[in-house]
Design goal:
Length: about 130
């Protein structure tokens, strides 16, 4: 096979494989997000998002959608209030957990653990900003 054909075949193969990887990645992200969002009671407490996901997953009819929307709108404020009231306690517990884990680790492991915590906090902050 001459050099030009090798280049063309390699290019086409790269496009096909690259497209497959991108498609697979996007498909995974989409399905993961959908599944995560419907479990989202611990997340953003967004009743509209929850209603949309339930409508999609359960194929709700209009009457069901209206009834569930009323239920969500009546319960979500209290859920948010409860979440906010326990947030300081959860944060303190998380910090305590991190401190105890860190005390078991070697010096180099502590550095890696600290990096993991920083990345976690950054993701959490970005998620909060995105959620509003």
């Amino acid at each position: 096979m001459n050099e030009k054909k090798k280049v063309v075949v390699s290019f086409v193969l790269g496009l096909v494989l690259g497209g497959a990887v991108v498609y697979t990645g996007l498909h995974f992200c989409y399905t993961h997000w959908k599944d995560h969002a419907i479990k989202g009671f611990y997340g953003g407490f967004d009743s509209q998002r929850m209603l949309d996901k339930l409508t999609h997953k359960l194929d709700l009819n209009l009457e069901q959608k209206v009834q569930i929307e009323k239920i969500l709108e009546s319960k979500f404020p209290k859920m948010k209030e409860i979440k906010e009231s326990v947030r300081p306690e959860l944060d303190a517990l998380r910090k305590s957990l991190q401190t105890e884990i860190r005390s078991v680790l070697e010096s180099d492991q502590q550095k890696q653990f600290d990096e993991i915590i920083v990345k976690y906090e950054e993701r959490k902050l970005k998620w909060k900003e995105k959620r509003g």
